[in-house]
Design goal:
The complex is a heterotrimer of chains A (669), B (168) and C (112). Chain B has 168 residues and is α/β, with parallel strands linked by helices. Chain B is 28% helix and 14% strand. Chain B contains 4 helices and 5 strands. Chain B is globular. Chain C has one domain: 2-Layer Sandwich (Alpha-Beta Plaits). Chain C is of the alpha+beta class and 112 residues long. The chains are: A mainly alpha (669), B alpha/beta (168), C alpha+beta (112).
Chain lengths: 669, 168, 112
Amino acid sequence: MSAPLLWAAGIAWILAAGLGLGASRRVFLWAAGAVSAAGGAACLVGGVLLTMRGRATATVLGAGDVVGRLDLRAAPLASAFLVLLGLVTLAIGCYAPRYHKPGRGTAAYLCAYNLAALASLAVLVAGDVTTFLIAWESMTLACSLVILRHWRRAGVREGAFLFLALGEVGFAMVVAAFVILATHAHSLDLSVIAAHAQSIPIGWRSTAFVLALLGFGFKAGLAPLHIWLPAAHPVAPADGSAYLSGLVIKLGVYGVMLFGFELLGHGPVWWGLLVMALGAFSALIGILYAVVERDLKRFLAYSSVENVGIIMTSVGASMTFSYYHQPVLGAFLLLVALYHVVNHGTYKTLLFLEAGVVEHASGIRDLDRLGGLVHHMRASSVISLVGTLGIAALPPLNGFVSEWMLFEGLFQGFRVHSHVVGVLILIAAATIGLTAGLAVLAFARAFGIAFLGMPRSAEAARATETGQPVLGPGLLAAACVALGVGAPAVLVALDHVVRGVTGVQLRPVLLVSNLTVIPGHTNFSGFSPTYLAVFLVAVTVVPIAIYAASRPRGATQRVPVWDGGLMSYRARMQYTATTFSNPVRVTFQRLYRPDIHIDRASDDPAGSSGPVHYRTKVQPIFEQYLYRPIARFVKAFARLLQPIQSGDVNQYLLYILVVLVVAYLVYAW
Amino acid sequence: MTVPGHEEDRLAARLAGDIHGLFGRSLHIRTIDTGSCAVCESEIRLLLAPHYDLHRLGLFFTPAPRHADLLMVTGPVVRVMELPLAKTYAAMPEPKLVVAVGACPLGGVFDEDEIVRGRLDQVLPVDVFIPGCPPSPLALLQGLLVAVGRLAEKVGALSFVAGEETSK
Amino acid sequence: MALWFFRGLGRQVVTTRYPSVLDPWTAALPTPPSFVPSRLTTELVHRLVESCPSGALRQEDRELVLDVGACTACGTCQRIAPDAITASGVFELAATSCAHLVKRVPIRGGDK
């Protein structure tokens, strides 16, 4: 039943791309959005049905040996990602018509976006290497077109270039990894490669694994391969950024999972430890750069880096536990990773869509100039609050459940019989703990400064909700709540997926009495997200009800907030985003190496007074110390080789002669 | 100035009884200086000293008007302090009392001009007036206890004519 | 139990109330004036009204009106007419209404 739905989704997106081309007229814009959303709904339902099946099915389109043939495979591992793809495209389909204005740029954009969705679907259902690679590259190209929507604005071309460049470097590595495997397994079919995994020599498998990890890590945004995220996300349109962060980086995670759990079989312990280390590092780096970021969208981009790090930590820990004969915990952490993929996709998409709403309503992305949006943008504030609670991992929402499960899984590192590895797992858990704390700080800052308090600029004071999309983000907010409160149901579905991937039956040690989640072992811990949600609602509602019923019936007096009796409370007296995150900036200043400039009217304390200008800029250390040296080396090497391409015809004729002679000699022997 | 009639006396007596029931044993005081010379503040501060010890009577100072029951105002109510005074008064929950301390808010020392309002009862409804420049801490204590209904007012019956029965 | 407790009880010192017996030094506190009506003349009253730095004294018909609230107990009026004005010795001056603080003293000394 799932296959027809996935076909329907693909066809819907092709149709939406065609309709999108006519989006210079309003009716085509809405039609494209509606069809795209319908495709998303079909993909969502198809993905859900696929999770319940737990087995892989294969289809072949066309004939021929390598070219002209599409091998498709609906596998359990891809099913969770298909659910996410459906949810994200459904929400963006509802959002896009109200966000974009009809026009030629929008037409090109919608066509590119729907083709990107189609390509993502193809990546997830690819059955052999060529289909996967073609779909992957198409997705990268379509996404770069999505980023280039406003190509005349500042920073857009740089962002798209970084995305494309790093994507191509990653693609090269992925091709190399696939080629290694396909050569050794003598087949391009992914199922055949997976079956032959153990027979490939371990050295080649390790090389393939590292290449795949780095190659897919570029797309996933794993630090230090993440620098395209903060460059591309702020300049892409909001739904484009939402699609990038919500889905595209998850495809990188899918790639790593595909290699780690299916195509390569069991490997040495350092695979899992490497993934876990990179994940923990990425999580910490991501949130540290997020906390001090002023631009709302760049902040969300760094937060995506953080969450990808969390997912990768879970994947790495899963591989480690499996190596140390703890299949239950290994399967449990894989389930946590998949659950976090879906959760993060949901709330990050929601937050990016809401960032787009804020940007359209007020015209500013700078947190230091926003404020007080809750007064005139009620629905958007509530929806953003749900998304913020989710991503900050606060109960009873989905982020809390998945991070709780991750911590419970990591804390069981003592079950591993190697002390060193146990300590490493614990260090990863501690890093993720620090990350989670900083994430709460970062998102309290983002939501509080942007939505609460008084407006810090005239544009923020003028922002209203009229004409802004609400349905798309609202659907995602409802999904966040459902994924959290209905976690037991979601975990049952993911349990099928994990059983299909690892073969471990997780259900009895995952869900006790149908509503309580336990992390793989009954003697460790457990909690029920459903009961917790009910409890939290009751604890809030019951006292309010008692108060409302017993309140004295006299008139209520409403007086202004006590502000110390100041003559006028100005918006500039509030916290700004920069000051709120200052403790973190000062604590971690060795990482940030901030560039601080202070301009005073006079340094003499008794001298003339005037405004003091304080400028601080965080140094981009990855660009400075990693990418620029490599780029400089490549340029220097190219300059070294430049004489080969001299433009002299005689030299080229000499080359032809040399190659002919060498080829003859080689053939002769 | 009008002399209170019989009905008003009865209502006042009932209100006094309510006030005594509410605040008689525990009262939180918020002081505000509307431009005084700060000598009244020194006398108010002395109330916490061991000799006078306000806390033994169940009276406390609080900086937060949301927690305060009684607003103690010193100073001649300069016009720029009218807004903070009004905000502080509005921030106090009902029931609340207002006490004017010193000669300044009672119209003495400074006449009304463009800087100074002169009288507190033109701005807020005042419950107790405590004259003095400054009133000694004992006078302040007596004034506060009159405000919460634990002591009876004395000065109304006095005539300030030397040698008469009702003058001290 | 400490001896001071019984000593206090014996001296009727109740610490949770306003003192029933005031300390002796309260007799020296500056207080508003008391007037002798028979020694007040219109001309003296005129001089007193002009000299009060706080504006607590004014004349109405045949009465000298003292606003106890406005009085700062500076003693100026007592220095001008020491035989007509003495310190009242009253410092417990809390009043629940302005009207209770306005005191009228008849001028019985004549027009001199």
